Amino acid sequence: MAEKDHHEQESSATNQSKELKKKKRIKCLLYIFLFAVSHAIIMIVFTLTILKIRTPKFRLTSAAFGSFRYSAAASNPSFNIMIIAELSVKNRNFGRFKFRDSNISFYYNDVVVGSAFVPSGRAGARSTRRFAVAADLSSAGFSDRAQLSAGLGSGVLLLKSRSKLRGNVGKLVVLKKKKSSEMDCDIAINLAKKIVGDLSCI
User: Fold this and answer.
1) When comparing pLDDT for 202 and 166, which is higher?
2) Measured CA distances, 132 to 26, 50, 181 (Å)
3) What local confidence, expressed as pLDDT, does residue 11 receive?
4) Do 195 and 62 contact (CB within 8 A), yes or no?
5) Measured between alpha carbons, how far is 53 from 126 in angstroms, rounded to an integer?
6) Are 23 and 148 in contact (CB under 8 A)?
7) In angstroms, rounded to a whole number, what is the distance separating the alpha carbons of residues 157 and 192?
8) For residue 39, what are the contacts with CB-CB under 8 A and spacing of at least 6?
9) Which residues, 6+ apart, have CB-to-CB distance to 120 below 8 Å?
């Protein structure tokens, strides 16, 4: 009888030991699963934020003027203006944006009236690069005198600025992704005050 009780105690202890080991294995597997899930979430967040490449924004942010001459006379309407444009390259990426030489063109009613050279440069990670370029704007190439006279006579000279920056966004030090950023801005110049009255970019 005593031997039977002893056997039952050993069997019970063995079962308890097996149960404990089973629980430990389950707990260990649970920890591994939770670690794998958290690691996957971190990788997804990393991919969506750090590695996602966004297109840098290239904008004309403000403008001042040097020489400023214009005439709205119907017989000979014209304008000759030197514009000093401040440009910005906003890089929202976690890697720097390195861009090549480019040009910015200014249009009056879809006719080019001036252009300027945009030198190569770089915008650091999550930062904005600002610089200025100067261009001489002239109506010499615009042939519709009546339209030009009416436009200048309104007191507001409506221009467009367009440009495209091509370059590379660096990621993880050694990897690079080609990206280009386009500028398309509307500029309204108040002729009487010789200032930019309105400026908007898309």
Assistant:
1) 166
2) 65, 30, 17
3) 61
4) no
5) 12
6) no
7) 10
8) none
9) 98, 99, 100, 101
Instruction: Output the pLDDT for position 52.
Output: 84
Given a cut of 70, whether residue 6 has pLDDT beyond it is no
* Plot region of 9 (φ>0 → left; ψ -120 to 50 → alpha; else → beta): alpha
Which two tokens mark 162? 């367009």
Pairing of strands 57-71, 78-91: antiparallel
Q: What span, in angstroms and rounded, lies between the C-alpha atoms of 115 and 137?
A: 8
What percentage of the chain has pLDDT greater than the value 90? 68
pLDDT at 120: 98
The predicted model scores a pTM of 0.77
Label the pairing between strands 111-118 and 102-108: antiparallel
* 56 Ramachandran zone, left/alpha/beta (phi>0; psi -120 to 50): beta
CA distance 89 to 97: 9
pLDDT single digits (tens) 25-61: 888 888 887 777 776 666 555 555 556 889 999 999 9
**SS3 annotation, the chain:** CHHHHHHHHHHHHHHHHHHHHHHHHHHHHHHHHHHHHHHHHHHHHHHHHCCCCCCCEEEEEEEEEEEEEEECCCCCCEEEEEEEEEEEEEECCCCCEEECCEEEEEEECCEEEEEEEECCEEECCCEEEEEEEEEEEECCCCCCHHHHHHHHHCCEEEEEEEEEEEEEEEECCCEEEEEEEEEEEEEEEECCCCEEEEEEEC
**CA-based R_g, the chain, Å:** 34
